[in-house]
């Protein structure tokens, strides 16, 4: 006898895929990103710098727009090698402004170059960008017991993202407001904000449990 699978309540923030597996409501727009990347812990300096830059470029835009342009961004910015980006000159700025494959916003391009210099200085001072960033991971007691649609809509920032934003700004970083940094922390696994009940939520919990924090 066949039994119908009940759809999750909308307030849960969950949907069922074709096999009846629960996933976050936004998964259909970016299935590979949701299932295989978002929220998985990242320790690589270059990829962390890249993510901060791309979140900065995303400000005022939909993330899917940036995701579709990510390979063009990587090509344009030397795969986000911040040692190389830190040496960019005015000629590079004009080259980037002429690149239709990326977001041609002069302020954001200049910010990416500035932040490369800040990332390089921080890595030289502390040993690694990743080690310094991961020290700002919020403790377990500061994380929500339930991530649902109401939490998602009501918390575009967090105490941890506000504190990390301030710390970065004190070091001269730009386009690193609390909302941008909260999205960064979600994406690189410093927090797990897949909806509670999403199949990926438990996967990310396992990945975070086995992840060796840098530094």
Short structural description:
This protein has eleven helices and two strands. It has helices spanning 31-36, 45-58, 63-76, 82-85, 90-97, 106-126, 129-134, 149-154, 159-170, 178-187, 199-210; strands at residues 14-16, 22-24. It has a two-stranded antiparallel ribbon.
How is the topology of this model organized?
Elements: E1 14-16, E2 22-24, H1 31-36, H2 45-58, H3 63-76, H4 82-85, H5 90-97, H6 106-126, H7 129-134, H8 149-154, H9 159-170, H10 178-187, H11 199-210
Helix pairs in contact: 2-3, 2-6, 2-10, 9-10
Describe the protein in words.
This protein is mainly alpha-helical. The protein contains 11 helices and 2 strands. The chain is globular. The mean pLDDT is 95.
């Amino acid at each position: 006898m066949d039994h119908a699978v009940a759809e999750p309540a909308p307030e849960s923030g969950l949907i069922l895929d074709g096999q009846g597996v629960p996933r976050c409501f936004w998964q259909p727009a970016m299935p590979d990103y949701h299932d295989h990347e978002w929220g998985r812990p990242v320790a690589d300096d270059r990829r962390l710098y890249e993510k901060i830059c791309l979140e900065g470029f995303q400000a005022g835009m939909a993330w899917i727009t940036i995701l579709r342009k990510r390979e063009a961004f990587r090509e344009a910015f030397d795969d986000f090698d911040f040692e190389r980006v830190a040496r960019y000159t005015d000629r590079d700025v004009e080259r980037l402004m002429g690149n239709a494959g990326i977001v041609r916003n002069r302020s954001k391009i200049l910010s990416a170059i500035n932040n490369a210099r800040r990332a390089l200085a921080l890595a030289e001072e502390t040993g690694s960008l990743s080690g310094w960033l991961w020290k700002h991971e919020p403790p377990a007691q500061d994380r929500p017991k339930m991530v649902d649609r109401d939490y998602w809509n009501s918390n575009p920032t967090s105490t941890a993202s506000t504190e990390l934003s301030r710390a970065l700004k004190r070091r001269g970083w730009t386009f690193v407001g609390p909302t941008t940094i909260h999205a960064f922390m979600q994406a690189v696994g410093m927090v797990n904000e897949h909806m509670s009940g999403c199949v990926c939520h438990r996967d990310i919990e396992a990945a975070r449990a086995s992840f060796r924090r840098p530094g």
